[in-house]
Design a protein that fits this description.
There is one protein chain. This protein is an alpha+beta fold. The chain folds into two domains: 299 residues, 2-methylcitrate dehydratase PrpD (Orthogonal Bundle); 121 residues, 2-methylcitrate dehydratase PrpD (60s Ribosomal Protein L30, Chain: A, 2-Layer Sandwich), CATH 3.30.1330.
């Protein structure tokens, strides 16, 4: 059976009683982390400008858990952009799955008043679809200039919304194929408002793909695997597996791959080095004047993604290793308070960033796509000595080094505080923990 059709069959046949409890737990974590970052990012320029331009006059879905409402497609678009605006949302599969899947599912579920259990099932359908495509190409899409969140996200969201709308296998396959033709997002726009727009646009595209397919809109039944289809078109080197059978539902990729929950609101490629530097600062509290040069060892792929070497805005600094390690020295943290234009432009921050050198390698980790086996920082001191961080293989928040329940709630609470949430953090957090027993409109209610 063709890949596109096989994915349609898998998604249409997926039922809650087939899903392991641990998979639901990971999906709930994806909802919780995304909703936190979505509320935190609501006042950022990207979602605010998008909302003004779209000018929704009310509708079935809420915008970032507030009194503002929009039709579900526009809500998915705006909320997805808000969820990724701070680059604080979770990571997996070379991209940011939850900031696409959750806004699309949440908006459509509110319109349908779907159950929380249906929402979790839809999330897992979208995640597994995304993962199936991810594993069919070992190439690094970032190196080609693609933003994986945008190119895979539209397809994953189409699968998720098709599941939520309970489409049959044929129409689900059509939705997935239509999602593939809406895949977009280029690396050159990292560090601008367009990067979070990729996520919001993918959420909108996936939701609309499912609605159109339900109404009879057609797309090719082999849109993914055709020689001129999605996989071949976006493949960095053309080394793509278009023919192996689909093994979905036997091995759950959401369990083997999981979600990385970000501890810092910067590109995930900086997180191992930030962990290394903060650990060193605890053991050896250096001051900027003590440092002659910092040399950060990372993979060539990470260095390509971290394209901003002399940022002068908080948005650009999210994709700067120079900023990440300098903030770790000067502020002893890398948080939302540091990712502001004012902090980035401080003379001491700018001066220290100028003393950071990036050293790349191609010793890639076979288990972590695009990453070197470890990241490390070496510091040449002004007194002639040297200091060296530990070699960090997995960032705090990686599935193998998960945040504790207390840390997850602390991040969620801080996000809702930044976003001035109308609903107390504890109430929303508890609803999401209990979402299997609730309906969508109960989850987003303001009271």
């Amino acid at each position: 059976m063709h890949l596109t059709q096989a994915l349609g069959n898998f998604v249409a046949d997926l039922s809650p009683n087939r899903i392991p409890d641990e998979a639901r737990r990971v999906a709930r974590m994806g909802f919780t982390d995304c909703i936190g970052t979505m509320i935190a990012g609501r006042y950022e320029d990207a979602p605010q400008i998008l909302r003004r331009v779209l000018a929704p006059a009310g509708g079935d879905a809420s915008l970032y858990f507030s009194e503002h409402r929009a039709p579900a497609p526009e809500a998915a678009w705006i909320n997805g952009t808000a969820g990724h605006a701070l680059d604080f949302d979770d990571v997996a599969l070379r991209g940011h799955p939850s900031t696409v899947l959750v806004p699309a599912i949440l908006a459509e579920a509110e319109m349908l008043d779907a159950s929380g259990d249906d929402m979790l099932t839809a999330y897992i359908a979208g995640y597994e679809t995304w993962a199936e495509l991810f594993h069919r190409d070992t190439g690094l899409h970032h190196g080609k200039g693609w933003h994986p969140t945008g190119i895979f996200g539209a397809i994953g969201a189409a699968a998720a919304c098709a599941k939520l709308r309970k489409l049959d296998a044929a129409r689900t396959a059509q939705a997935i194929a239509l999602g593939a033709s809406q895949s977009a997002g280029i690396m050159a726009n990292f560090g601008t408002m367009t990067k979070p727009f990729h996520a919001g646009r993918a959420a909108h595209a996936g939701l609309m793909a499912a609605r159109l397919a339900e109404a009879g809109f057609t797309a090719s039944p082999d849109a993914l695997e055709h020689p001129q289809g999605f996989l071949s078109a976006v493949s960095p080197a053309g080394d793509v597996n278009r023919s192996d059978p689909v093994g979905l539902g036997t091995e759950w990729r959401i369990l083997s791959q999981g979600l990385g929950i970000k501890k810092y609101p910067t590109c995930y490629c900086t997180h191992r080095s930030i962990d290394a530097m903060l650990d060193l600062m605890e053991r050896q509290p250096l001051k900027p004047d003590d440092i002659k040069q910092m040399t950060v060892s990372i993979s060539e792929n990470f260095a390509t993604i971290l394209r901003n070497h002399a940022p002068d805005t908080g948005l650009a600094a999210k994709f700067s290793m120079e900023f990440a390690v300098s903030s770790a020295v000067i502020a002893r943290k890398v948080g939302l308070a540091e990712l502001t234009d004012g902090f980035v432009r401080r003379p001491d921050v700018q001066a220290l960033m100028g003393r950071v050198r990036i050293e790349t390698n191609t010793d890639y980790d076979p288990e972590m796509s695009g990453a070197s086996r470890h990241d490390q920082v070496r510091i040449d001191l002004t007194n002639g000595g040297t200091a060296e961080t530990e070699q960090v293989r997995r960032a705090t928040g990686h599935p193998t080094r998960p945040l504790s329940d207390a840390q997850l709630y602390e991040k969620f609470r801080d996000c809702l505080e930044v976003g001035k949430s109308e609903v107390p953090a504890e109430a929303v957090f508890q609803r999401l923990r209990d979402m299997q027993q609730l309906q969508a409109r109960q989850i987003t209610a303001l009271h």
